[in-house]
Amino acid sequence: MNVGLEKEAKLELIGVSEGSAKEAKLELIGVSKSYRRDRKRHPVLDRLSLRVGEGEFVTLIGPSGSGKSTLFRLIGGVELPDEGSIRIDGKETNGKRGLIGYMPQQASLFPWLSVAANVSSALTTAGIEAGEAKRLAAEWLRRIDLGDVAGEYPHVLSGGMQQRVSFLRALLMPRAVMCLDEPFAALDALTRAEMQAWLLRLWEEERRSVLFVTHSIEEALTLSDRIYVLSRAPARILKEIRVPLPRPRRGDVWKEPAFVALKEEIMGLLGEGTSP
Amino acid sequence: MASKIRRALLPAGTLIAFVLLWQAVCSAFEVGPYVLPAPWTIASYMADNAARLWDQLSFTLLLALKGIGLGVAIGIAAALLFHLIPGVRAALSPIIIITQNIPTIALGPLLIVWFGFGLAPKLILLALVCFFPVAWSMLAGLGQAAPHLREYMAMIGASRWEVLRRLELPASLPSFFTGLKLTATYGVTAAIVAEWLGSSEGIGHYIVLKSKGYDTTGVFAAIVCIVALALAFYGAAVLLERLVIRWRPGTSNAAAGKRRDAA
Ligand SMILES: Nc1ncnc2c1ncn2[C@@H]1O[C@H](COP(=O)(O)OP(=O)(O)O)[C@@H](O)[C@H]1O
Ligand SMILES: [Mg+2]
Predict the structure, then answer these.
(1) Domain with CATH 3.40.50.300 in chain A
(2) Ligand 1 centroid from CA A74, angstroms
(3) B22 inside domain
(4) Which of A40, A41, A69, A213 for mutating ligand 1's site (highest number of atoms within 8 Å of CB)?
(5) Is the pLDDT of residue A84 over 90?
(6) Which PANTHER family does the record cross-reference, listed alphabetically (chain A) (predicted)?
């Protein structure tokens, strides 16, 4: 009970309107991190607080080098925050690994495993029994039209296809949140737009809790329910923006006036002190 | 396939030319077979003594196989030990470097003094020679797994054992085979040395006999056998590598073009 009250108080403090109406799958409270380099402290994250509700698509947008990947390393338990608390499903998980699904910028498929084995081996790591993992992988690869290449090695796949497999691997892990770290940044513009539409459709069917990182404003607005705009390093949250666009969204959502207005607002926030 | 044959044509041509020249020189200057036997002389000698040579060769083959097997097993175990337990590598490095720098010719007689003329000293000598390339190259391979794959495994919470089994071991295979190919040829040489030093059988022993009897043709016949054996071992290692490592892009040239359409 106490914890609940405390949480609500803190949420109020940081201006999260929704309070405890929706169960928070992931919650960061006052998380800071700095690295030591040349005997000097380099603060990377400055008292960040954010939350991802059940079935919510939340995006972090910020300049590169602002500390977004560092934040993911903290959430993944690979590194410890200097202060603050990271909670997954309501439990403090600072430094605990194996609680999130993860999709990195590079597809990071194992070159010696077939596409299907890449998916199923990640699932066995997540605790799914081997037979069931194989079945799930085969079924879902068929579902996303990659059934034909399930037996191939990843290097025969195009960049976009590799990212689909990488996404599927994160999606199928039975974990509270999916963390996607600039998954489309390495793709060309056309493939990228295609992948966004694909992800949008798949996510709207599945409604998993997602924390997504990007530095593309359009991508953030197209996909998200809520956006946190980060400052340059040390990263603070400049603003939390609710995206009022209705779902299901389509690829041409960028034509909506609300989209255009928000885009301008975010550009303004990110553009502070940068090139005109 | 056709381009492979074409690429093999030039070295094969040189080899044939070399043998022909050798034959021509021997016939033209009437070089005595105790100095330099002609290729044809060697060939007919080998045909006449085929059964004996084959016996000796199969003894050496078996010894080399046992020694290489033992050496590779120890090499893999050492690589894993060094990789998994920090400090072991630094602690044992000097001793290992020392064992690798003692000439086998010097080490062999000592081993015979300590362990007699049986199989044991020969196997120890072979294992000492064979484990090193495997251990060293595999150790390098284990540490060289792609950083982004390491990061991925950490982020999804894979255990140390899973990182080893799913990432580091497969990633070390190309280096392992580099070591194995070296070991395959070193192993044959080491087996010959071991037999030379103390054996009553094998090609190594055969060379000792023939050279003591000034039977140069016999020595050459033995050398041909040794080279053939070393090449066969090397070929077997290459074949094994092809069978195991099938994922490397570039094995099919269609794949190279399709790869990474977006950089
Ligand atoms: N292990 C580390 N040691 C020292 N500095 C680091 C380390 N990891 C990241 N940094 C620094 O932290 C900052 C944020 O990096 P990162 O989280 O990768 O940014 P982003 O993902 O937003 O582009 C960068 O300035 C980077 O140099
Ligand atoms: Mg990053």
Answers:
(1) 23-108+175-273
(2) 12
(3) no
(4) A69
(5) yes
(6) ABC TRANSPORTER ATP-BINDING PROTEIN, TAURINE IMPORT ATP-BINDING PROTEIN-RELATED
Mean pLDDT of chain A: 89
Domain with B61, as residue range(s), is: 39-245
Q: How confident is the model at residue A100 (pLDDT cuts 50, 70, 90)?
A: very high
CATH number for the segment(s) A23-108+175-273: 3.40.50.300
**Residues 6 or more apart in contact with residue A84 via CB below 8 angstroms:** A28, A29, A30, A31, A32, A47, A48, A49
Closest Cα to atom 9 of ligand 1: A70
Q: What is the ipTM of this complex?
A: 0.88
Q: For A108-147, how does the pLDDT look when each residue is reduced to its tens digit (9 = 90+)? A: 999 999 999 999 999 999 999 999 999 999 999 999 999 9
Residue B86 pLDDT more than 70? yes
Q: Identify whether B62 is part of a domain.
A: yes
Query: Residue B249 — left, alpha, or beta (φ > 0 → left; ψ -120 to 50 → alpha)?
Result: beta
Return all residues near A144 (Cβ < 8 A) that are at least 6 apart.
A164, A168, A202
Beta strand pairing call for A40-53 and A24-37: antiparallel
* A152-188: burial string, b at 16+ Cβ within 10 Å, e else: bbbbbbbbbbbbbbbbbbbbbbebbbbbbbbbbebbe
Is residue A19 scored above 70 in pLDDT? no
Cα of A70 vs centre of ligand 1, distance in Å, is: 6
Q: Would the CB atoms of B246 and A153 count as touching at under 8 Å?
A: yes
Ligand 1 neighbours by CB, cut-off 6 Å: A 35, 37, 44, 62, 64-70, 233
Quick one: pLDDT at residue A18? 46
B29 within domain boundaries: no
pLDDT in tens, A42-80: 999 999 999 999 999 999 999 988 999 999 999 999 999
Centre of ligand 2 from the C-alpha of residue A72, in Å: 9
The CATH number that applies at residue B159 is: 1.10.3720.10
Whether B162 maps to a domain, the answer reads yes
Query: For B162, which residue in chain A has the nearest alpha carbon?
Result: A125
CA of A103 to nearest chain B CA: how many angstroms apart?
8
* Number of domains within chain B: 1
Distance from CA of B133 to the nearest CA of A (A): 24
